[in-house]
Amino acid sequence: MKRLLTIIILCVGICCLLVGCKGTNNHPAQESPETNTTESHVVSLINTNGQTIAERFDVPPGFVRQESEVKSFSHYLQDLPLKPDGTKVKYYDGREKSGDAYLAVVDFNLGERDLQQCADAVIRLRAEYLYDEERFNEIRFHFVSGFNAEFSKWADGYGISVDGSKVSWISNSSSNSSYESFQRYLDIVYAYASTLSLENELIAKPFSDLAIGDVFIQGGSPGHCVIVVDMASNENTGEKIFMLAQSYMPAQDIQILKGDSEGSPWFSANIEDILKTPEWTFKTSQLKTWE
Fold first, then answer.
1. Residue 99, pLDDT score
2. Among the ranges given (16-20, 229-233, 254-258, 268-272), the one the predictor scored with the smallest mean pLDDT
3. What are the phi and psi torsion angles at 90 (to 5°)?
4. H or E segment at 125?
5. Which residues form the signal peptide (predicted)?
6. What is the mean pLDDT of residues 190-196?
7. Phi and psi for 256 in degrees, rounded to 5?
8. What CA–CA distance (Å, rounded) separates 120 from 187?
9. Rounded Cα–Cα distance for residues 204 and 131 (Å)
10. What is d(CA 18, CA 15) in angstroms, rounded to the nearest whole number?
11. In percent, how much of the chain has pLDDT > 70?
């Protein structure tokens, strides 16, 4: 009889334990108020109807967006047109990019060739700005071979011939200053320039002097680079934040990077040596700028 009573007590105890485990599983973990506040704060920084960088992304409370002079490169970047919110980055072959490294897509035509990769996107942004301002003499980029591809010469009716390691100018009646011809010029620059050549022609600068239009670049094969497209600062603390754009491999749309795991578009400048972006890690000493 005692043995039977012991068995009954054990069975009741086991049933209680099982019910307790199931009860715990029936109540999802509650997110902390801090996490919810952070997420709603990030969402509030994104204006889904905004059509440019400055319109799409707000600055956090306490920060003021940098004001840029009209016709400056920094103003051009802050005013970059964006595709509708939620648009996916596409590769040159039409495939969509997986992952969540980016928050928006710049509204530029990509083309159907594997050309506009990382350095090419930075080159394009600089070149498009100079073209808009009709500063044709300043549109020039070096190939890896060292050849100086000047758009002003291209616009005068010349093309570029590449025969192995030999690169030279040749007469080409279809080359001119039209936008269509300008895009053909950029295609050949994309094909023969790289992070190595771009790194060599940019000028090093201290991270403490970070500005819109600056480039974090690591030359190599592979290498990578990203460009600063917006900045803001906190008037009380002096903290600076910045926004980055990139393309990547294979050729893909230019995209505005996610600044943290919570979905903010802003990176903090309160860092010492290392800048971590969603797809590459740079040293702050790899910051460069244009002549």
1. 86
2. 16-20
3. -120, 145
4. helix 118-132
5. 1-21
6. 98
7. -90, 120
8. 9
9. 25
10. 5
11. 85
Measured CA distances, 41 to 35, 74, 77, 94, 171 (Å): 10, 26, 25, 34, 57
- Coil, strand, or helix at residue 153? helix
3-state secondary structure of 276: strand
Reading the block at residue 108, the tokens are 């530029």
Cα–Cα distances in Å, from 278 out to 35, 186, 190, 274? Answer: 21, 27, 24, 13
Instruction: Quote the CA–CA distance of 65 and 265 in Å, as a whole number.
Output: 13
CB atoms within 10 A of CB 115: 19
- Judged against a pLDDT cut of 50, whether residue 193 lies above it is answered with yes
Q: Which of 187, 133, 134, 178 is nearest to 156 (CA)?
A: 178
Task: Give the whole-angstrom CA distance, residue 250 versus residue 113.
Answer: 10
Q: 112 to each of 91, 115, 148, 174, 187, how far by Cα in Å?
A: 9, 9, 26, 21, 11
Amino acid (one-letter) located at 96 = E
What are the tens digits of pLDDT across the range 205-232?
999 999 999 999 999 988 999 999 999 9
Tracing tokens 């936008």 back to the chain, one arrives at 179
Q: Find tokens 């952070």 and name the residue.
A: 38
Structure tokens of 274? 């290392």
Tell me the HSE value of 286 on the side-chain side, using a 13 A CA sphere: 23
Q: Are strands 203-204 and 287-289 parallel, antiparallel or unpaired?
A: antiparallel
Residue 146: band (very low, low, confident or very high) from pLDDT cuts 50, 70, 90? very high
Tokens 């690169």 appear where?
167
Q: How many CB atoms lie within 10 A of CB 107?
A: 15
Q: Which of 37, 121, 91, 77 is nearest to 243 (CA)?
A: 77
- Enumerate the H helices of 57-178 as residue ranges: 73-78, 118-132, 151-155
